[in-house]
Amino acid sequence: RFSRIEALDELLPADRFIRAPIRYASAFLAGKAYARYRRRGGPRLSPLPDFFIGAHVAVANLRLLTRDPRRYRNYFSHLVLIAPQRSAH
Predict the structure, then answer these.
(1) R_g of the chain computed on alpha carbons
(2) In this predicted structure, what is the pLDDT of residue 49?
């Protein structure tokens, strides 16, 4: 939703949010999680970015801020998730 990277940087400042390239081990773990998803009947739609994010966080031993914790809990159960509750407005 951001038209300029500077706008995103204002919302997620580099001094508070880590920006790191994905490691080979993370890519492998993402593939394994996605394979489990497919075996469980997940549609062929490409949810792969969520798997890359979850794997990257797992390998780097970080915490993940998400508004959609369900998939991360299903496929990366050991992650520490920060999942703000949605209001009922």
Answers:
(1) 14
(2) 85
